[in-house]
Each structure stands twice: as structure tokens, then as C-alpha cells.
RNA sequence: UGGGGUAUCGCCAAGUGGUAAGGCAACUGGUUUUGGUCCAGUCAUUCGGGGGUUCGAGUCCCUCUACCCCAUCCA
């Protein structure tokens, strides 16, 4: 439980602790207009996961406010995905459309309050009136309609008296707001369309901004988590709830960064394009980043959830490496699934000195997987091995079969190559080999040392199978779309051989084909007569890496290059810090006077010369007799910080207090650090510095005789740190200073502490 | 260019003034009848840049820069 929490969980925890809510209620609110993808998995994991962690509830709500794009089949896919990932929503599946009547009533209320109006501008006019990002908009002439007229019009909109686009309902907020979302956002539009659930009951539909916050409120949601692009919409969310005087308790919106992955596209539009263009076989194509795709590929729900938990939650736009997902599935499958043998590219091996057949005992699990189970492995004179596992001219470091190097057949015997048979084109068609009868696995008395064991399949009893090898769908890290597809994302191997047990015994749903990867029978195309296996993910392969073959290696190279360049670049622009606008004439005069008469440094004089508010405070403080440099620092750091959130009229202290504080620093009655604490106290209570220091007992301790015992105490308390320090870990010095200061409540004079420590630690 | 955000290792990501967590990737070495797993180890004198405050700054102040989002009757 004492795990580190992400910022969302932090918020929930605090809200629960403060009693703001007595239970957390979240929701996952997808729009049913496409298949859910791994990005949704992240949102699902967050919303359901937080509810679970804090023993709250999570609703599933279809955000079905746009009848023209939404379909029941998508809603179904979403429900399936949530269940498959292992989550259960609280109560029934909810729909924004369940609340259409209540939403309508809220809209009427807004109209009555004069906070919403029916606008009859055309779509283009509305756009034009809205202004741009840099210019304010103008309010529609229709905004002046009376409440009665608005009520009448809105009701007639509902009754279907108008065509699409004739009128809309808008909130009356602020057409000149720098936040575009606040420029009288649309609340309702007319759509004579058939809705997947409400049919033709409505012809006006609420917009996202209006429906979402109210649906959250209606459901008693406490924390409404959404992605970053809704940050600007939060103002509308709050406006609607506040204007209608809803709550507390009421929901608040918090945003997190959506998931991006390299070599992947995540937008619904691009995914749809892939499906529609036939570049993939459908939404559940195993190369698709959809939940359905991963599921068909063979990913486990647990691996997806683990992945989502492993990537963290933050507000930084980031791109997760697919390797992290691949790690999650390997990590889940490795300790679980049976190991079996499959040969993808068969090369026949005839063992000349072997006659008859036998069945070898072979465990399904390697020594490091604590599971029981084995099968009988048929063995006979003719077997298949992987073409890659033989080499006539082996590269350096090759561990497998060569004319001079024997190899072990996994779970069976050691063999040696006697002869290589080729066809007229020079292609190897067969290996004639010899086995060592006394080398049987588990009963090896031959004493032969081999470098590796390879998989094989008995020719007589093995099954032909189709194997589909998937690679990343896109060939570049940040694909734009179809133009960046990886032409080799699917390799179909028709003539593979799998051992008997895989077909006849089926010890599990998923397998590791030894030395190759994890595989899963394709749920659509695999049948008894025609087994088809999807490669979920390959095994890590340090040999491929080392021998530098395959496109992986190529990608690594092309990847490494821009990075090197980037690093280079990073150092370069250290030349010129940005130029600040020059001082005008009066500012210049002030600046010069501060520099010459008061002895301020440039960094102090400059901002004071520019900022009138700070300057007047500073000047007034000077008159009270404060030391210029100290006062300048106080004003420039502490006051400036407070002025970021509070206006100058609201300050609870004046020049006298600042001057007094400055004087106390000057006289070394308190340290500068303590002065900051005093300052905070002034902000909080409005008391004078003298009173605060008095009351808190914050006077500085500068007497070495008083500090020394504390130094000793600290040093005896952390003997191992002292040792580390003496061994050269100089960074620890700060730690010791910190401890001593902490022990004195920050009152010890840091200069003295430093001296003392320096002497004792020698 | 107005507003809202974000910048910590190749990729995620902790960090709330006192020794820069962790995971992925990568790289050593060991175990291994999977070139897998596992185990041990290496991998940020530095937090987008520059200044300032402080005994001490990734954390506070000033400033600059880069990137993302907002001008759908989409969500």
C-alpha cells in the first residue's frame, strides 16, 4: 500500500482525507464511435484502478451525444474490452442519453437565468463571430433575445420545427475570453438523426461540454479524469456546474497525458483508415493496437494492465517504447506457459544410425518454472530442424550444428553432421547425421560437450501448421499513416511443423515455441484441420543482436544516429541567453541610481526599475531604513512570488514590516532562511516580524558552544554516512548540515554549522 | 501572435529546500539441455538554457527557449 502514488491518486487521497468526499466515484466515458485501443486501456486502468484502490466505484458511461457517428457495435466492443481487462463497472452500463430529459431541463434553467440563448447565426457566421486565437470575438445579435423568446425557440427546436443548423443553444459567457472555449460555447444543436438508443425521440442533442459535466454530476462522480486536450474545457465544466449552483459535493475534472507509443498510430481516424483501406484485416487484426487486436494476437489482459500501470501517469506528452509492452507480455507468459517445439523453416535430418522409434519424456516447463507437466515426445530416424540451426560456414560464435560441431536435440540426443545434401541450385535439402546412443537427455554418459540445444520435430508424427509472424505495423518510430507502413509486418509461414502434443494434448492456450517466441492459436482462423498460430511476441534474441542480422539491427543504427546528433545539438546553443527588452529612459535613470547610490547589483536594479509595484514597495521600505541589498532580495524573491497569486492591495504587510524584517537579517538576529519562514507567517497571520520571531522563538543561534553538541549528536547518529563521507563522498556534507539545521529547527547559524562540521569531519 | 499546458538518462517516470528512486532499453559477467529466464554488476557530478536567492536549488524568484492543446453545430 505504501507504494508511490501518481498525482491523480494523490488528489483522491487528499480529497478523501479532507472529507471532501466520503467515497470516490470515477467513470470511464468513451464515445461509442470506434474500437477501443491501448490508449483506452490506459484510461480504463486509471479510472477503474483508482476506484478499486480506494474502494470506490467506477461507472461505465457511453457518451452517446452524437447520433450520426455512434453505433451499438462499438458500445459492445467497449463493454467487452472492459470486461476482458478484468474490470467490473458499478451498476448498469450508463449512457449520456439516459439523461437527455434532465439535461434539457438544465438547459431550460440556464435560459431562465439569462445564461443561455438561442442563436440563429449560420455555422459560418458563428465561426466568424468567434474571432481567432489572438482576436476577441463578437457576440451574436441574437444573444439579446428575451428569456421568453429563447424558451419558446428552444422548445420548438425540441419539437422538431426547425431544420438542422437553423438554431443552436449557446451559453452566454464571454466572447472576448482568451480561452476560446468560453466564447459562448454551443450547448445544443439540431440533428434530425436516428439515435442508437433513443431512436427518434429527440432531434436536438447536447454537446460534449454541456452533457459531460452534468452527467458526471447526475451520477455523483467525484473525480472526472480525462486527457490533456480537455484542459481548456475545464473552464466550461466549472462554469456550467457553478452557474447552475450544483453541489457540493460535485465533480472536478483532472487531466492526464494520453498514451502514445512508437511504431504505432493511436488516432481513431488513422486506425479506421487502416481498416477501410484493407491494409489490415479488420479492427481485430493482430497487428492493430486495438484491444481486440491484442486479444486476438494472444496478449493476456493482465499483461496489458501491467503495462498500463508500469508507464505511470503524468501531464507530459510522451511516447512510450513498444518494447515496454513487449516486456509486459513476456514477463506475464514466461513463468506460466508450456514450452513446446515447432520448426518454422524445416530442414530434413536423417539419422543414419537410428532405427525404429521411441517416445522421450519431456517436461513442458524448464527448470526455472515451478510447474509440473510433461509429454511423450516421439523420436525417429527422420526429423526436421530449423534451417537456421545448421551452417556450413558458420560465423564466429555460432553455437549450432555445423559440419564440425555437434549439437543437442532438445530433450533427445546429440547428433553430428555426416553429410550435406544439396539440389542442383546448391540449396541444402537434407542433412545426413549420426546420433550418439549414450547421449540421451537425462541419461547422458557420452561426455560430449555441445554448445547448444536446438528444437526439432519428428517427421512422422509432427503436424503441419500455419504460423503468422507479426512485426511492428509501421517502419518508423513516429508514423504519419499508411505511407509509413512496414511491408514486412506480417510473414505467413505455411509449412511449419509442430510437435504432436500441441495439437493432440493442448496443455494450454498459449505456448512458448522454444527459442522462438510465444504463440497463440488464432481464434478466428485456427481449426483442427488447419492449425494457425499467431506469434504474440518473439523471445529476446541476443544472438540476432550480436550477429547483427535482421532489420532490428538496422533500425537500431538508424535510430542511434539522430540521437547522437541531438546530444551534439544540446550542448551547442549555450551561447546567448534570450535578450530582454531594453529599459526606457526613466527606467534607465532609476537603474543607474540604484546601481550607484544604493549599490544594488544589475540583477536587482533591473527588475526593480521595470516593475512599478515592486519598486514602490522597495522605496517605501528604504525610507524606513532598511539595507538596500537585503530589502531588494526580499522584495524581488518573496514579495514577487506572492504577487503571482495575489494583487498588491491584498498584501497583509507593508514597507514597515519588510524593513523590520530586513533589519533583523542585517543584525543577524535571524538567518535569511528563517526570514523566509517569517515572511510566510506574515502573509498568513499579518503579524509583524518582531512578534513572529518572538512568538516562535526563531532567533538565530550563533554560539558554537551551543551548536557543537548537536553536531556531535548528528555524527554519532549516522556513523556509516560519516564513513562514506571520509571515503570521499563529499555530497554528504549537505546532508549533515541539513540534519544539524533540522535539529535546531533551522535556527542554527548555517555559517557556524559549516565551520564546525568542516572541522569535525576532517 | 492571446490563452492553457509540459520539459529530470535512449524511452517511461519518482522527486514538495538537504546523498538524483524505480521500470524498459543497452552493456558486462555468472547460471542454464531455450543465444530465453534467473542472478550479480555498469549506465544522470546533473534535472531545457541563462541569471538570481540560499550554508545548500531539480525543487524558490527572474528571464529565455522548445514542444503540445484551443478558432468542429466532434468528443
Folded structure, characterized:
- This protein is of the alpha/beta class.
- Among the domains are: 113-205, Glutamyl-tRNA Synthetase, Domain 3 (Glutamyl-tRNA Synthetase, domain 3, Alpha-Beta Complex), CATH 3.90.800; 559-696, no CATH class; 704-760, Arc Repressor Mutant, subunit A.
- The chain is 39% helix and 16% strand.
- It is built from 26 helices and 25 strands.
- It has a seven-stranded mixed β-sheet with strand order 10-23-24-25-21-22-11. A seven-stranded mixed β-sheet has the order 19-16-17-18-12-15-20, with no helix packed on it.
- Strand 17 and strand 18 (428-435) form a beta hairpin.
- The longest helix has 21 residues, at 551-571.
- It is flat.
- The two termini are 42 Å apart.
- The model is unreliable at 550-579 (pLDDT under 50).
- It binds one RNA strand of 75 nucleotides through helix 5, strand 6, helix 7, helix 12 and strand 19.
Low-confidence stretches: 550-579
Instruction: State the secondary-structure class.
Output: alpha/beta
Shape annotation = flat
Secondary structure tally: strands: 25
Mean pLDDT across every amino acid position = 92
Percent of residues in helices comes to 25-40%
- Largest sheet properties: 7 strands, mixed
Distance between the termini: 42 Å
The quaternary organization reads as single chain
Beta-strand percent range: 15-25%
- Helical stretch count? 26
Give the strand order, joined by hyphens, for the main sheet: 10-23-24-25-21-22-11
As a whole number of angstroms, the C-alpha radius of gyration is 36 Å
Amino acid at each position: 500500500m505504501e507504494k508511490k502514488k501518481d498525482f491523480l491518486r494523490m488528489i483522491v487521497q487528499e480529497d478523501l482525507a479532507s472529507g471532501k468526499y466520503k467515497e470516490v466515484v470515477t467513470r470511464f466515458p468513451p464515445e461509442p464511435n470506434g474500437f477501443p485501443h491501448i490508449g483506452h486501456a490506459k484510461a480504463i486502468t486509471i479510472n477503474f484502478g483508482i476506484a478499486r484502490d480506494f474502494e470506490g466505484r467506477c461507472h461505465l458511461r457511453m457518451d452517446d451525444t452524437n447520433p450520426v457517428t455512434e453505433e451499438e457495435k462499438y458500445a459492445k466492443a467497449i463493454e467487452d474490452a472492459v470486461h476482458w481487462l478484468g474490470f467490473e463497472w458499478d451498476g448498469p452500463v450508463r449512457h449520456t442519453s439516459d439523461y437527455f430529459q434532465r439535461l434539457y431541463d438544465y438547459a431550460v434553467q440556464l435560459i431562465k437565468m439569462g445564461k443561455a440563448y438561442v442563436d440563429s447565426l449560420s455555422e459560418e457566421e458563428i465561426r466568424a463571430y468567434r474571432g481567432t486565437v489572438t482576436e476577441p470575438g463578437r457576440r451574436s445579435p441574437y444573444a439579446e433575445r428575451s428569456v421568453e423568446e429563447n424558451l419558446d425557440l428552444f422548445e420548438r427546436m425540441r419539437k422538431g420545427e426547425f431544420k438542422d443548423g437553423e438554431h443552436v443553444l449557446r451559453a452566454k459567457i464571454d466572447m472576448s475570453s482568451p480561452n476560446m472555449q468560453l466564447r459562448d460555447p454551443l450547448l445544443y444543436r439540431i440533428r434530425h438523426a436516428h439515435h442508437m438508443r433513443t431512436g427518434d425521440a429527440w432531434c436536438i442533442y447536447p454537446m460534449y461540454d454541456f452533457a459531460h459535466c452534468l452527467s458526471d454530476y447526475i451520477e455523483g462522480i467525484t473525480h472526472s479524469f480525462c486527457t490533456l486536450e480537455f484542459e481548456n474545457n475545464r473552464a466550461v465544466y466549472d462554469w456550467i456546474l457553478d452557474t447552475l449552483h450544483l453541489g457540493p459535493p460535485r465533480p472536478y475534472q483532472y487531466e492526464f497525458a494520453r498514451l502514445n507509443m512508437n511504431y504505432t498510430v493511436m488516432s481513431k481516424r488513422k486506425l479506421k483508415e487502416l481498416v477501410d483501406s484493407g491494409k489490415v484485416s479488420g479492427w481485430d487484426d493482430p497487428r492493430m493496437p486495438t484491444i481486440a487486436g491484442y486479444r486476438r494476437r494472444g496478449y493476456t489482459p493482465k499483461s496489458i494492465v501491467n503495462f498500463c500501470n508500469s508507464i505511470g501517469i503524468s501531464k507530459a506528452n510522451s511516447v512510450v517504447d513498444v518494447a515496454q509492452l513487449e516486456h509486459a507480455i513476456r514477463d506475464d507468459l514466461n513463468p506460466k506457459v508450456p514450452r513446446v517445439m515447432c520448426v518454422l523453416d524445416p530442414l530434413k535430418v536423417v539419422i543414419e544410425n537410428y532405427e525404429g522409434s521411441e517416445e522421450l519424456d519431456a517436461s513442458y516447463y524448464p527448470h526455472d518454472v515451478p510447474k509440473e507437466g510433461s509429454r511423450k515426445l516421439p523420436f525417429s530416424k527422420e526429423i526436421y530442424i530449423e534451417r537456421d540451426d545448421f551452417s556450413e560456414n558458420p560465423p564466429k560464435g555460432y553455437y549450432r550444428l555445423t559440419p564440425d560441431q555437434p549439437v543437442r536435440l532438445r530433450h533427445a540426443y546429440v547428433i553430428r553432421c555426416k553429410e550435406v545434401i544439396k539440389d542442383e541450385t546448391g540449396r541444402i535439402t537434407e542433412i545426413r547425421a549420426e546420433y550418439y546412443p549414450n547421449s540421451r537427455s537425462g541419461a547422458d554418459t557420452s561426455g560430449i560437450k555441445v554448445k547448444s540445444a536446438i528444437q526439432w520435430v519428428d517427421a512422422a508424427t509432427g503436424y503441419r501448421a500455419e504460423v503468422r509472424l507479426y512485426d511492428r505495423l509501421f517502419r518508423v518510430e513516429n508514423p504519419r499513416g499508411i505511407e509509413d507502413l512496414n511491408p514486412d509486418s506480417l510473414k505467413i509461414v505455411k509449412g511449419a511443423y509442430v510437435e504432436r502434443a500441441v495439437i493432440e494434448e493442448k496443455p494450454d492456450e498459449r505456448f512458448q515455441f522454444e527459442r522462438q517466441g510465444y504463440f497463440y492459436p488464432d481464434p478466428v482462423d485456427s481449426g483442427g484441420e488447419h492449425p494457425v498460430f499467431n506469434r504474440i511476441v518473439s523471445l529476446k534474441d541476443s544472438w540476432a543482436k550480436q550477429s547483427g542480422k535482421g532489420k532490428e539491427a538496422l533500425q537500431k543504427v538508424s535510430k542511434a544516429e539522430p540521437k547522437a546528433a541531438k546530444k551534439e545539438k544540446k550542448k551547442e546553443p549555450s551561447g546567448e541567453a534570450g535578450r530582454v527588452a531594453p529599459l526606457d529612459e526613466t527606467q534607465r535613470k532609476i537603474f543607474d541610481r540604484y546601481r550607484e547610490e544604493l549599490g544594488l547589483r544589475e540583477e536587482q536594479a533591473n527588475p526593480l526599475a521595470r516593475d512599478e509595484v515592486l519598486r514602490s514597495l522597495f522605496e517605501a521600505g528604504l525610507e524606513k531604513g532598511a539595507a538596500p541589498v537585503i530589502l531588494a532580495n526580499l522584495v524581488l524573491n518573496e514579495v514577487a512570488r506572492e504577487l503571482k497569486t495575489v494583487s498588491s492591495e491584498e498584501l497583509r504587510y507593508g514597507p514597515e514590516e519588510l524593513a523590520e524584517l530586513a533589519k533583523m537579517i542585517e543584525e543577524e538576529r535571524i538567518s535569511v532562511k528563517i526570514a523566509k519562514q517569517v515572511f510566510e507567517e506574515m502573509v498568513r497571520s499579518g503579524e509583524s516580524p518582531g512578534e513572529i520571531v518572538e512568538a516562535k522563538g526563531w532567533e538565530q543561534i550563533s554560539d558554537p558552544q551551543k551548536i557543537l553538541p548537536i553536531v556531535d549528536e548528528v555524527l554519532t547518529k549516522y556513523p556509516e554516512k560519516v564513513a562514506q563521507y571520509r571515503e570521499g563522498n563529499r555530497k554528504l556534507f549537505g546532508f549533515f548540515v541539513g540534519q544539524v539545521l533540522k535539529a535546531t529547527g533551522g535556527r542554527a547559524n548555517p555559517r557556524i554549522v559549516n565551520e564546525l562540521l568542516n572541522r569535525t569531519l576532517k
